[in-house]
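Subject: Sanity check before I submit

Could someone independently write out the structure tokens for this chain? I want to compare against mine line by line before I put it in a report. The sequence has 187 residues.
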Amino acid sequence: MDKRSLRQEMREKRSHLSPREINKYNREINSHISVSRLFLEGKVIMGYLAAPGEVNIDPSLQTALAMGKTVCVPQILDRNGNMQAVKLTSLKKLSQDCFGIRTPGEPVEVVPPEDIDLILVPGSCFTEHGDRLGKGKGFYDRFLPKCTKGVSMGVANEINVVAELPTNSHDVKIRYLVTEKALRVCK
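---
Independent answer below. Compare away.
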């Protein structure tokens, strides 16, 4: 199956979840994230501000802020797949970027990728081997290699975990995967 068809299939699967199921799964996923050693020991946590169809990790970001951690999120620099990490100080009064995704308003403070300890990564689907299918622009495939000490953790619903994915040489694998069922190390 090609990547475009797989993305569509994953969107369709998620659309069949009820709001109640989505809220329950989001709570379980955030619980797994916030009690993980990677999260608790990390000083600089990069998350994301969920777009429609993505797992909402706002509670984990709020927990990290309350713990005094440095929290950052992606800021899209252009439509060619380039982004940077910018500091998030609050989940209130956010702007929207060119893709309609919530983002901190200007002026922003850039967080160097090499300072990030944990990167929470959204995706259309993942495998247990660490393969990830994003939205197709390659933002994370370009950004993750710059996070020299950071550990990547894919965030998804269990229905978005598949046996295998079509991959390219530039696709970056993730090290951990968290779903409503568990946090697991990618094989």
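---
OP: Matches mine. For the report I'm noting this point. The first helix runs from residue 3 to 15.
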